[in-house]
Amino acid sequence: MLRLNASSLSRAFGQQLLDEGAHLKPVFEQQLLPVISARLLDPSLQRSNSGSIGLGSALSLFLASHRRAPKLIAEVGTYIGNSAAAMGCGAGVAQQAVQLITCDMNPCTQLPFKGLNLPEGSKAQVVQGTSTNMFEFLTSKGAKIDMLHIDGRLMKNDLKLLSQLLNPDTLIALDDCEGDEKGHMNLDLLRRTGLIQNYVYVEPFPRELFHRWGLETRSVTGFLLPQISINFTRQ
Ligand SMILES: C[S@@+](CC[C@H](N)C(=O)[O-])C[C@H]1O[C@@H](n2cnc3c(N)ncnc32)[C@H](O)[C@@H]1O
Questions:
Q1: Is residue 202 part of a domain?
Q2: How far is the CA of 44 from the centre of ligand 1 (A)?
Q3: Rounded distance, CA 174 to CA 187, Å?
Q4: Which of 73, 97, 112, 187 is close enough to 81 for a disulfide, judged by CB 3.0 to 4.6 Å?
Q5: What is the pLDDT at residue 229?
Q6: DSSP 107-170
Q7: Beta strand pairing call for 123-128 and 72-76
Q8: What share of residues in the chain are helix, strand, coil (percent, to 5)?
Q9: d(CA 95, CA 93)
Q10: Residue 116, domain member (yes or no)
Q11: Total number of domains in the chain
Q12: Is the dihedral of CA 162, 167, 168, 169 positive or negative?
């Protein structure tokens, strides 16, 4: 009777985040945007062989993180720290301390939360190394990740470690989900290992949804939503 796919879920999830997050517009525009714009304009932070997330992806991460309210966020691919800032800022609105761990095997910012006004006790840790190094560190601490952002290429040894780090309600975001870019390669790897059997894939929010916030932009951030986080309601 009713079929839902990655595209229809994207419209539903995106519309809900953008409409129900309308009150967050001042935080996004006045706190987050100046921070991420300044980093994009700072030549000392850039490398010629890498890029940072765009506006639509930053907004998607900001709103999804606000909705999930993670205590612990892990990220593969720090670079100039704009995705980390977007997630930290979104999570911080709930006034609960947010802890972020992010890794990069190439030179990257050491201060992804710099310039943000986050709740007391919030902190960001940068692992200058591979995703495997970071996941090994997290497993050694017995950590469980509430939100995972993958903006690098997953490595073979990551998958076994991830099986110990994910909770049934961990929200996963994947950058570069278009064409045969790395987002779809990471998605394929996660699928083949059986790690996301209880997840549904939500493709990046369509361009026209961002008009609801008066923005002409697009996103390449896909989400993996835990099935247990999807509800049918009467309202
Ligand atoms: C597109 S950039 C990340 C942009 C960043 N999220 C931002 O918003 O500024 C991707 C980064 O991931 C790093 N990377 C890729 N695969 C990785 C891995 N498996 N472990 C650690 N770093 C990785 C690269 O060195 C690169 O700097």
A1: yes
A2: 17
A3: 8
A4: 112
A5: 97
A6: ---S-TTTT----TT-EEEEEES-HHHHHHHHHHTT--EEEEEE-S---TTHHHHHHHHEEEEE
A7: unpaired
A8: 45, 15, 40
A9: 5
A10: yes
A11: 1
A12: negative
Q: Are 136 and 110 in contact (CB under 8 A)?
A: no
Q: Give the nearest ligand 1 atom to 58 CA.
A: 8
Residue among 60, 65, 153 to mutate when testing ligand 1 (max atoms within 8 A of CB) = 153
C-alpha–C-alpha distance, residues 129 and 25, integer Å: 35
For residue 160, give the amino acid letter.
K
Answer whether 189's CB lies under 8 Å from 154's CB: yes
Q: How far is the CA of 234 from the centre of ligand 1 (A)?
A: 42
Residue 83 lies in a domain: yes
Q: pLDDT per residue over 96-121, tens digit each? A: 999 999 999 999 999 999 999 999 99
Residue 225: give the domain boundaries.
28-39+52-229
The pTM for the full model equals: 0.98
Domain-embedded: residue 3: no
Q: Which helix (H) or strand (E) holds 37?
A: helix 33-41
CATH number assigned to the domain comprising residue 114: 3.40.50.150
The residue nearest atom 11 of ligand 1, judged by CA position, is 77
Pocket of ligand 1 (CB under 6 A): 50-53, 76-77, 79-83, 103-106, 108, 130-131, 151-153, 155
Gap between the Cα atoms of 208 and 121, Å rounded? 37
Question: Which atom of ligand 1 is found nearest the CA of 85?
Answer: 8
pLDDT at 43: 86
| Spans of the chain below 50 pLDDT | none
What is the atom index within ligand 1 of the atom nearest the CA of 47? 27
